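Check my protein:
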Amino acid sequence: MKKVVSMTLLLATLGSWAVAQSPIELNIQLDQASGKISPHMWGVFFEDINLGADGGIYAELVKNRSFEFDQPWMGWKKLDNAGEGTYLLLNDSQRKGNKRYLRLNNVSNLKLGLQNEGFRGMGVKDGEEYEFSLQYRSPNADMKINVEVLNEQDKVIGSTVLPLALSANWSEGAIKFPVTSTTAKAKLNVWFSGAGVLDVDMLSLFPKDTWKGRSKGLRKDMVQMLADMKPGFIRFPGGCIVEGRDLANRFQWKKTVGPINERELIINRWNTEFKHRLTPDYFQTFGLGFYEYFLLAEDIGAAPVPILNCGMACQFNTGELVPLEQLDEYVQDALDLIEFANGSADTKWGKLRAEMGHPESFNLKMIGVGNENWGPQYIERLAVFKKALNEKHPEIAIIASSGTDPEGDRFDFLNDKLRAMNINIIDEHYYRPPSWFLSSASRYDHYDRKGAKIFAGEYASHTTRPNGPGKSTWEAALSEAAFMTGLERNGDVVEMASYAPLFGHVDGWQWSPDLIWVDNLQVYGTPSYQVQKLYSTNRGSEIIPITRAGQPVAGKDSLYASAVYDQKLGQLIVKLINYNSKPVEVSFDIASRKKLANAGEKIILAGKDLNVSNSIEEPLNIQPKLEPITFKGKKLTDSLAPYSFTLIKLQVR
């Protein structure tokens, strides 16, 4: 891989040497749009990897709150030396989803205590309020709970007392209290006092200040990073967790909706996937389930794009298959999901959505069948799904997998078969070095304009592996920006695109690079995030040809460009990448009958060091800088900074 990176730098250096001293002439045909840009062109891909959901965007601070992990006491420790039989874990098969609970036999009226370590600690902030809650049953006890939040020095920085009423049936107790200090590594102590028997479950701690103020909701700063991108869609729930290591561990959406305490936890498939990053405490509680995913999409103005299991487990793991004659359950899950999203409140699944708080439709228009699946066995199962979906829901577009790679026999086989099936959208994935992204900017220039649309569903430029937070570099981001000019230039073929993965926790990652990094208190966007955001917030509505000597600007002299017109805003938006170590002079000749304002703005992302990255400590090493520009007539000359992504916006009168 180091050889590939070195060659990338060499090509850039040679490109800078080859650039002529006089301005490079670019021609923009503003009145000759070559196609439409999809309104959901640039989106985001979410998967529960790298503590993306539990320990991340799902704001729960307690790990293993319901004692359902494979090791029921994981995350917890006892704070006393109570006798045998004082703490009992019961497994009640009559309880839906969440079968285990803890029984406290406090016959001697002792002060019993538990401590929870959180997800690599608990992030709490000075002056903020937090809500402690639990489910309990106490038919013959009058007990109270003392709740304490401790900092890294084990000093109490927040506490409260929750009295519990007698209750023969399961009840919920909750109380809010502030903390007086900020720490990323807090712990929670829960003390129980009073004689008798007490059953407890779902011990929980949430910040009050969540996204949109929803009780027990999502982490506000992480969602805001997504909302700021104004994504056209959000793909969920993955990713390889859709498939599971085996079919028993696949993602089943029906188990992620309804009451939170009835959702059935499963192990996260990234728990043991990477030997160098073992994460034995990584589970999916599904507090972030399909209802919450749909709600998140609606909140940030994104089209929901759910991906469902097609009857195949991950082919890199077990490759388990459901026999074709037993595929009906999986197909029905897809049909029922459409009813859950769009059905009226008098349907079974539409009624559940309404009961959960959303009587209106979620306006689902696309559904993915399978994730990174391949081979004839995938095509066979996809055909069954397609027949049922087309018959009952012809209004729903089907997204199908082209496998794990952007070329080769596996890709060619799937590409031919999917096009022969008249699949609506083909999902292509590419995790490659920067040199691949630079050389592939013309990938879609000659794709069939009348065939299937393309979803660049997962992509990221990888400089080294394994990576980590510091390897989400400007080199990777700039190569992605160059490649994205080709996606935008071919927006009549490329319907959607999303970087992957989305989130990485600096103390709990399994895979990198990632678009956004967090710890328990802070969040920052990588250089790739800054690139994605500039594209997504400046998507335009029409593709405008921009050429150099009649050819696309796609790598000659390490220069890349695309242009769009935004009808609503009346703006011409030009995106230019200079992958050279020296400035490059360019001259725009804009052919148009329209009048242009004599002033505009220029947004620049640049870094002379390709190895620079953002971090928790320095989150804005690479950040956009805004500059005004002025010009006369329809000719504009500008200097592109070394190793830069420049976006120019011109107002059209």
Summary: Residues 44-59+211-539 form a domain with the TIM Barrel fold (CATH 3.20.20.80).
